[in-house]
Amino acid sequence: MRVLVIEDEGALREQLVQSLRQAGYAVDATDRGEEGAYMGREYPVDVAVLDLGLPDIDGLEVLNRWRDAGFDFPVLVLTARGRWDEKVEGLENGADDYLAKPFHMEEVLARLRALVRRSSGWATRVLMAGPITLDTGTHQVRVGERELELTAYEYRLLEYLMLHAGEVISKTTLAEHLYDEETDRDSNVVEVLVGRLRRKLDPDSDFAPIETLRGRGYRLRAATTDA
After folding, report:
1. In angstroms, rounded to a whole number, what is the distance separating the alpha carbons of residues 161 and 49?
2. Are 108 and 210 in contact (CB under 8 A)?
3. pLDDT at position 161 over 80
4. DSSP code for 143
5. C-alpha separations of 217 from 57, 65, 93 in Å
6. For residue 22, what are the CA distances in angstroms to 4, 104, 105, 206?
7. CA 165 from centroid of its chain's CA atoms
8. Which of 27, 41, 58, 156 could serve as a FRET partner for 180 with CA atoms 20 to 30 Å apart?
9. What confidence tens digit (pLDDT) does each residue in 14-66 have?
């Protein structure tokens, strides 16, 4: 999952970036509203963290520009504690959730996980596709009763495929959502990653959940949801 962070307070922005990366997200960040508005339009954002008090244009203007342009990725708005009017205005203008400062980083992560799940139609934190289960809270992955040991990027890949089960996803799209702008992306790396994940999901070749569609990309086979 790829997160856009727009926060002008340097120490807090760095804390958010580091915590999100440690939690397995690809992260892009800026301290400016104009740049953030541009990044939200041009980058493949899955979810955004948006401070309302920015130095050039305020967060509500950034949010309005995204929504007016048809971008509907979920947005978690950060507000000053006690500014209930900002919270209301943010929600009225298309924010999906809000959090007052100061906050615990664990709550930010929990709210972002919930927003990403809901935007993909999942009501619970456990995703399912056939015998595969993925717990977005603990990052535990099982195939039936067998627990898998995945690398950070293998987990990111599987989570993205499960959130978009049944959709055909190109190698380019996968690379964009797995890696942030600071990472040198190569579609061949995605091929290797998919191959490794397939072997872990299906070491005996009895179950092939990830399909390759030549010239188009990959698709995770049918999923079931509790939404």
Report:
1. 23
2. no
3. yes
4. E
5. 39, 32, 36
6. 15, 15, 12, 34
7. 15
8. 58
9. 999 999 999 989 999 999 999 999 999 999 999 999 998 899 998 999 999 99
Identity of the residue numbered 14: E
The residue whose two tokens read 């091929």 is: 191
Size of the chain, expressed as the number of residues it contains = 227
Lowest-confidence region among 24-28, 89-93, 152-156, 221-225:
221-225
Any idea of the CA torsion for 93, 98, 102, 104, to the nearest 10 degrees? Answer: -150
Instruction: Give the residue carrying structure tokens 């990830």.
Output: 210
CA–CA separation, 149 and 98 (whole Å): 34
Q: Which two tokens stand for residue 84?
A: 């209930």
CA separation, residue 179 to residues 114, 134, 156 (Å): 21, 20, 10
Cis amide linkage into residue 74, ω under 30° from 0:
no
Please tell me the pTM assigned to this model: 0.83
CA pair distance 123, 115, nearest whole angstrom: 10
- Helix H or strand E encompassing 131: none
Give yes or no for residue 80 having a pLDDT over 80: no
The letter for the amino acid at 143 is V
